[in-house]
Amino acid sequence: MSNLPNFDIVALAASAGGLTALIEVLANLPADFKAAIVVVQHLDPRHPSLMAEILSRRTPLKVLQAKEGDELIPGTVYIAPPNNHLLVNSDGTASLSQSEMVHFLRPSADLLFESVAGSYKERAIAVVLTGTGSDGAMGVEAIQKMGGTVIVQDNKSAEFPGMPSAAIKTGNVDFVLPLAEISSALITLVMPHGSS
Predict the structure, then answer these.
(1) What global pTM score does this model have?
(2) 8, 70, 110, 135: which is the annotated catalytic residue?
């Protein structure tokens, strides 16, 4: 049995209520998590974001605000900067784009998920957390079409169930889980069996 990870990337999307949800998921992942993590959290574009600092204090993983050309390293979390779309390339690097807003949003979970689906295909996991609106729903279809795996926070545990419900309604979802179970599902999926 090979000890290669089954997945290379986890893309998380959140909006309203997202910081609490992201802390809950990331705090419970091990420092040697075998996939890179990319995050779109809708933020006020007029303010610099403290997300990376806040999250890095709450998780054993390394947390960075993504920069153009960053190499996506396992066990590291890359957060879309305010007012930038975050995309991933098939060579495992990050791109930032100020291209048009999608559904009035920049960063857009849909664009992130679509780029992750195109670049990583079946080796990608997309996670939709609490948020208003429907960002991420188009993206989960792309992830699923390319053979990736989709996890959605259940409506009951989501502070704002708009984004999770929109994703669930597409029918392109593998797991609908309470927030408290998402990190253990990610560990089970990503960490090779036989390695602790």
Answers:
(1) 0.95
(2) 135
> Is 47 known to be catalytic?
no
85 an active-site residue? no
Q: List Cβ neighbours of 91 (8 Å cut-off, separation of 6 or more).
A: none
Residues in the chain: 196
Which residue type, as a one-letter code, is found at position 93? T
Instruction: Establish whether 42 is a catalytic residue.
Output: yes
Closest CA to 186 of 4, 35, 2, 55: 35
Q: What is the pLDDT of residues 23-82, one digit of tens each?
A: 999 999 999 999 999 999 998 888 778 999 999 999 999 999 999 999 999 999 999 999
Distance (Å, whole) CA 87 – CA 113: 8
In order of 14, 35, 58, 141, the CA distances from 135 in angstroms are 9, 23, 26, 12
- Can the peptide bond before residue 107 be classed as cis, meaning omega within 30 degrees of 0? yes
Q: What is the pLDDT of residues 101-131, one digit of tens each?
A: 998 999 999 999 999 999 999 999 999 999 9
Cα 134 from chain centroid (whole Å) = 15
Reference 14, options 33, 49, 41; nearest CA is 41
